[in-house]
Amino acid sequence: MRAQFVVSEIGVGLRRNLTMTFAVIVSVALSLALFGGSLLMSDQVNNMKGYWYDKVNVSVFLCNKSDAESDPNCAKGAVTEDQKKQIMSDLDEMAVVEKVTYESQDEAYKHYKEQFGDSPLASSLTPDQMQESYRIKLQDPEKYQVIATAFDGRDGVQSVQDQKGILDNLFGLLNGMNWAARAVMALMLVVALMLIVNTVRVSAFSRRRETGIMRLVGASGFYIQAPFIMEAAVAGLIGGGVACGFLVIARYFIIDHGLALSEKLNLINFIGWDAVLTKLPLILATSLLMPALAAFFALRKYLKV
Q1: Distance of alpha carbon 89 from alpha carbon 30, whole angstroms
Q2: Going by C-beta distance under 8 Å and a sequence separation of 6 or more, which residues neighbour residue 72?
Q3: CA distances (Å), origin 241, targets 178, 202, 228, 230
Q4: Do the strands 97-103 and 157-162 form a parallel or antiparallel pair, or are they unpaired?
Q5: Computed over its alpha carbons, how large is the radius of gyration of the chain?
Q6: pTM to 2 decimals?
Q7: 241-257: b or e for each residue (b if 16 or more CB lie within 10 Å)?
Q8: pLDDT tens across 172-228, in order?
Q9: CB-based burial label for 282 (10 Å; 0-12, 13-18, 19+)
Q10: How far apart are CA 171 and CA 149, in angstroms?
Q11: How far is CA 261 from CA 39, 64, 245, 256, 271, in A?
Q12: Are 134 and 87 in contact (CB under 8 A)?
């Protein structure tokens, strides 16, 4: 009988404050969708880091004849065969080096034409203007400075470049976007909590006569609070369900179908469905507990009837 009464009171409360209940559902849905999106964004960035950092190389570019005339680092002339052999020998002896690949001027020219063949500059370049280089795969991508210290400024070396620096800028941008999403999520969460508190208080005020009578006849504080807490929890849970739907639909249409980024951007290792599905229980639990706790604390003074 008591459970039936609590359930009936929940329905009455939701119908009485339909507009505010709808606002709670929408705000909870948006805030938790952003929350889940930020978690998935973090997973995506970490996934990309693991994928790309494993593939980054350090490049040691060697001086050519053109560099000898224009680049201060190549003032002593183009790299010689003895210098190339010495550089290769030193690389083979370094423990941080996993693999070394030599790229000749002809190979560099071929790769440039493949990547930038449509560029007006490509037609004016010749193979002898390209730079020979050593592409170095490190055991640990963080050990770039070891290579830079050993070869930067050496005779025959034009420059030492670390691809990881380019990736760091990209991931820094992605992390910045993620923190911006979290800031918006926090703002929406505050709005949702304020709406929940106001909705509960309006509901409690509209039923103050009933709660006063219940208090006078000896009803416990929890029994009086239960319908209001459950109203907030139900509204929050609906919002959480909507947020879960947003994430599933976004993953389906953005990555798998619709935009189909997984097919168009083959170089990006996108997160799978397992990452999405593991976040849904957390979102639902948050959508249930957050409104319930907010309602509990908002109602404390209404027990003093």
Answers
A1: 59
A2: none
A3: 22, 25, 20, 16
A4: unpaired
A5: 32
A6: 0.67
A7: bbbbebbeebbeeebee
A8: 877 788 788 788 888 888 888 888 888 777 777 776 676 666 666 666 666 677 777
A9: middle
A10: 25
A11: 19, 41, 20, 7, 12
A12: yes
Give the sign of the dihedral formed by CA 257, CA 281, CA 245, CA 40.
negative
**In the block, residue with structure tokens 């996993």:** 98
């951007």: which residue's tokens? Answer: 265
Task: Dump pLDDT digits (tens) for 40-53.
Answer: 888 888 777 777 76
Kindly report, as residue ranges, where domains of CATH 3.30.70.3040 are found in the chain. 56-139
228, 13 contact by CB (below 8 A)? yes
CATH 3.30.70.3040 fits 56-139, yes or no: yes
Q: Is 85 exposed, middle or buried (0-12, 13-18, 19+ CB in 10 A)?
A: exposed
What is the amino acid identity at position 36?
G
3-state SS, the chain, equals CHHHHHHHHHHHHHHHCHHHHHHHHHHHHHHHHHHHHHHHHHHHHHHHHHHHHCCCCEEEEECCHHHHHHCHHHCCCCCCHHHHHHHHHHHHHCCCEEEEEEECHHHHHHHHHHHHCCCCCHHHCCHHHCCCEEEEEECCHHHHHHHHHHHCCCCCEEEEEEHHHHHHHHHHHHHHHHHHHHHHHHHHHHHHHHHHHHHHHHHHHHCHHHHHHHHHCCCCHHHHHHHHHHHHHHHHHHHHHHHHHHHHHHHHHHHHCCCCHHHHCCCCCCCCHHHHHHHHHHHHHHHHHHHHHHHHHHCHHHHCC
Query: Which residue shows structure tokens 């005779």?
Result: 155
